[in-house]
Amino acid sequence: SLTPTGDLVAAARNAGEGVGAFNVITIEHAEGVVAGAESAGAPAILQISQNAVRYRQNRVEPLAAACALIAEAAAVPIALHLDHVDDLDLLHRAADAGFGSVMFDASHLDYADNLAATRSAATWAHDNGLWIEAELGEVGGKDGVHSPTARTDPDEAVAYVSGTGVDALAVAVGSSHAMTAKSASLDIELVGRLRAAVPVPLVLHGSSGVLEDDLRRAVAAGLTKINVGTQLNVAFTGAVRRELADHARTDPRKYLRPARDAVAETVADVLSIISGRRAP
Ligand code: G3H
Ligand code: ZN
């Protein structure tokens, strides 16, 4: 069923587990994520990024509506999150489009400008019933340039959270966006210091590139919302490529079905790693 993001994140944090947040580009992604969550017996977050909205011809509503209906029918709790928004017009469409939460991304700005922009986004979000995440210490890779060296300073993080009023904080602890192979290791010691200092749940971006053991240890050390995008697309596109290499296909269902199944399998794997649950 469709569940507020804040509820899923709070429950995971209290249990010392991670909750997976998975990027959706097509309806098959959303169906695959929910199927994977159901087979793992774990909740999950469907997230649509501003970049995905651009791909969807700048219309967020059709894909968001499909995700909400897929979530409603799910056997496990599923939340709907708008990811990496810096366009205020898009932000202001989030509540009506059915999202329970947004990530406002001003991480490319310097500290003072990030704080000011995020504080006003957070005020708007709370006035409109939305849970809001923001980022401090830019996680690289959004522009194709990997910078796993960025780090969030715990003292600055504490001041940022109290100055902005955000409900969750995305931190830079060694990951980088859009990595197609698992080779990033995380600064687990820093995760522990951030968890001890920061009063709100912590979010990991660029989780696709993180080594499995590091992901497990980082969740145990205090990361809660675990964002996975690229890993789903590696699985999705790999399945399409195999299907088309082996067969002369015309009907998209013939190659999108294995793609959706590959997404489901990947999601179940990730959820078993971060929630400590074992898929049946
Ligand atoms: O916000 C989305 C995530 O940070 C996804 O990152 O595509 O590198 O897994 P990823
Ligand atoms: Zn991200």
Average predicted confidence as pLDDT: 96
Provide the succession of SSEs. Answer: HEHEHHEHEHEHEHEHEHH
What's the level 1 CATH class?
Answer: Alpha Beta
> What's the CATH superfamily, by name?
Aldolase class I
Strand order of the largest sheet: 1-2-3-4-5-6-7-8
Assembly state (oligomeric): single chain
- How many angstroms does the end-to-end distance come to? 21 Å
Number of helices: 11
Give the names of the bound compounds.
Answer: glyceraldehyde-3-phosphate, zinc ion
* Low-confidence runs: none
How much helix is in the residues?
A: 40-55%
Count of individual beta strands: 8
Count the domains.
Answer: 1
Biggest sheet, in brief? 8 strands, parallel, barrel
Label the CATH architecture: Alpha-Beta Barrel
Structural class: alpha/beta
Give the overall silhouette: globular
CATH topology: TIM Barrel
**Radius of gyration, taken over Cα atoms and rounded to an integer in Å:** 18 Å
Structure description:
- The structure is a single chain.
- The chain is of the alpha/beta class and 280 residues long.
- It has a single domain, classed as Aldolase class I (TIM Barrel).
- 49% of the residues lie in helices and 15% in strands.
- It has helices spanning 5-15, 27-40, 50-55, 61-72, 88-93, 111-127, 154-164, 188-197, 212-221, 230-246, 252-275, and strands at 19-23, 44-49, 78-85, 101-104, 131-136, 168-171, 202-204, 223-228.
- The chain has an 8-stranded parallel beta barrel, surrounded by 9 helices.
- Helix 2 (27-40) runs parallel beside helix 4 (61-72).
- It is globular.
- Bound molecules: glyceraldehyde-3-phosphate and zinc ion (ZN).
- Zinc ion (ZN) is lined by residues 84, 177, 205, 227.
